[in-house]
Amino acid sequence: MQISTSPKRKSFRLLALVGTLGVVTVSAGALLASVSPAQAANFASQPDTQVAVFMVPLTLLVLVLLFEVGRFVWRGTLPAQVPSRASRPPSLSGKPPAA
Predict the structure, then answer these.
(1) pLDDT of residue 95
(2) Secretion signal: which residues (predicted)?
(3) Helices (DSSP H) in the chain: which residue ranges?
(4) Domain range for 63
(5) With contact defined as beta carbons under 8 Å apart, do 8 and 14 qualify?
(6) Is there a domain that residue 68 lies in?
(7) Residue 19 and residue 27: Cα distance in Å, rounded?
(8) Distance of alpha carbon 63 from alpha carbon 52, whole angstroms
(9) How far is CA 75 from CA 23, 35, 40, in A?
(10) Does the pTM exceed 0.70?
């Protein structure tokens, strides 16, 4: 039997590699810029930085949501709705109705 990996697994490897390279790049940049932990803590304690750390991801989330809604509307078709089941009146005895 041949064992193959799923496409999701391969995309996760690529994502992990890109994330690791990003962390290494940012760390190297901080070392080259001579940023000390004390300087970073001082910068993180400023209110503007705290607001930015909260608002930037929130703004990106809203923009992605608007993009997805726009893409859905631009396509113009709604997905087919599944017809609802015919409801039966509930049985008073607790037993299913006889057919």
Answers:
(1) 66
(2) 1-40
(3) 7-32, 37-44, 47-75
(4) 47-75
(5) no
(6) yes
(7) 12
(8) 16
(9) 37, 48, 46
(10) no
14 Cα distance to chain centroid: 17
* Phi–psi pair at 2, nearest 5 degrees: -90, 130
Whether 16 is covered by a domain: the verdict is no
Q: Do the Cβ atoms of 50 and 44 come closer than 8 Å?
A: yes
Q: Is residue 39 part of a domain?
A: no
DSSP assignment letter at 97: P
Question: Are 91 and 97 within 8 A, CB to CB?
Answer: yes
Residue type, 78: L
Give the model confidence (pLDDT) of 46-93 as tens digits. 889 889 989 999 999 999 999 999 988 888 776 677 777 777 766 666
Q: Which two tokens stand for residue 50?
A: 């705290």
